[in-house]
Amino acid sequence: MTKHPLTTATCIIVGASHAGVNAAFALRKEGWAGKIVLIDSDPRLPYHRPPLSKTYITSDDPIEKLALKPEASYTQDDIELLLGVTVTQLDAKAKKISTHSGDELYYDKLILATGASPIVPAISGLTDAHNLFFMRNLEDSLGIKAALHNSSNKRIVIIGGGYIGLETAASLKKLGASVVVLERENRILARVTAPEMSAFFLQLHESHGVNIITDKNVSAINTDAGVNNVITSDGAEYPADIIIVGVGVRVNKTLAEQAGLTIENGICVDAQARTSDENIYAIGDCTYHFNPHYQRYIRLESVQNAVDQAKIAALAICGKGQDYNTLPWFWSDQYDVKLQMVGLSTGYDQVIIRHENTTEQKFSTWYFSGDELLAVDAINNAKAYVMGTKIIKAKMRINKTALADSNCELTLDRLQ
Questions:
Q1: How far apart are CA 72 and CA 119, in angstroms?
Q2: C-beta separation of 87 from 39 below 8 A
Q3: Cβ contact 218:230 at 8 Å
């Protein structure tokens, strides 16, 4: 079926995760009176992604509790949901998209919230492995839960020691699984945090019985009678009833390429989330955008960025242009530890670890470039996270000696 150009303005959003859903509702809030069509290949009502590797695996909560918005909200705001629909073509000149079923839809404005897909590493036998999952969507989480329930040995090998892999390891350990994490770098979280934080999380997981092995590059998987044998390049073997792969993601850029959009480390957008085509916007994990605070282009995989860019795109489309200028923040929950991160530590030349005088496990890692604070990682320490955010935003210079002194109260006046 072909839908010909509409007489009323239409905004089509491709991708219904955090970015796409928030953009749709923000458009209505900012006064978009035309049609809004929200499309996603996932057939389920749009849902929260972060709990998939955290609380959802260990809970018995119904799927409905993950919903980003109740179904009735879409009807109330007159947002048309096309779920289980894959957009296969984008013709920017005709301002038209085509779906896998052959439907054609025309737009006045288009928002690409296409996100990213898991990297599938070149491992011999990977595609033949039994109970193999990439922790990226609800089907992965449901599949892991079902496989664990049906497994007598509950032996799990996680390939990749990033936050997703470690969060999943913590969740599965709570369910009584035997968990091995294989990381090819010489430490976990090597790309995103300081060695001190890597050492902390290594000790945390080992204290809970997770076997984390670094400098391990998986080269092959042999599967026989439903049992996998994960083999590393040094010849070591690890039996696994379930394999979870978390080695990073690649931007979903096929549609952007078809449209001839500028692409670097993602879909390039300006300060108002506009691509090189004035009628096409891009938001969320798929974008490569300029960060005014750090004065460089970045690509972020975070809910915060997805939500903030969604609002910026909606404002721009509705003629209320506002530049994106948000300090990145992230979080991770593992066991009884809450990690809150603010800022980007890339380029740091000094790390200060601040321990609090408390019986609780509470400390923070402060990343500096010269005298400028770049980022803070706070363990069970919301105060350090909040304080770090204020200091980074203001580009405030602080007394590093006072910061490192646990007897010095963590307040702005004591740190200056």
A1: 35
A2: yes
A3: yes
Average confidence (pLDDT) over 338-359: 94
The answer to whether residues 240 and 258 belong to one domain is: no
Residue 371 pLDDT class (50, 70, 90 cuts): very high
Helices 163-174 and 195-207, axial angle in degrees (round to 10): 20
Question: Which residues fall within 8 angstroms of residue 53, CB to CB, at 6 or more apart?
Answer: 135, 141, 164, 167, 168, 171
Q: Averaged over 72-86, what is the pLDDT? A: 98
Domain that holds residue 143: 126-247
Residue 4 in this model has a pLDDT that exceeds 50: no
Helix boundaries (H) for 223-318: 254-258, 303-317
Rounded CA gap, 358 and 280, in Å? 52
pLDDT at 7 over 80: no
Q: Which DSSP state fits 5?
A: P
Q: Return all residues near 112 (Cβ < 8 A) that are at least 6 apart.
A: 14, 15, 255, 256, 267, 275, 280, 281, 282, 283, 286
Q: Which residues contact 233 (CB under 8 A, 6 or more apart)?
A: 216, 217, 218, 219
In this structure, how many other beta carbons lie within 10 angstroms of the beta carbon of residue 343?
24
Task: Check pLDDT > 60 for residue 3.
Answer: no
Q: Cβ(284)–Cβ(113) under 8 Å?
A: yes
109 near 317, Cβ under 8 Å? yes
Nearest to 120 by CA among 232, 218, 38, 7: 218
Q: How many domains does the chain have?
A: 3
Please check whether residue 185 lies inside any domain of the structure.
yes
Contact in structure between 138 and 36 (CB atoms under 8 Å):
no
Q: Global pTM?
A: 0.95
Measured between alpha carbons, how far is 39 from 19 in angstroms, rounded to an integer? 12
The pLDDT tens digits for 198-208 are 999 999 999 99
Q: Which tokens go with 23? A: 């953009």
Q: What pLDDT is attached to residue 2?
A: 44
285 and 231, same structural domain? no
Instruction: Give the residues across from 229 on adjacent strands.
Output: 222, 239
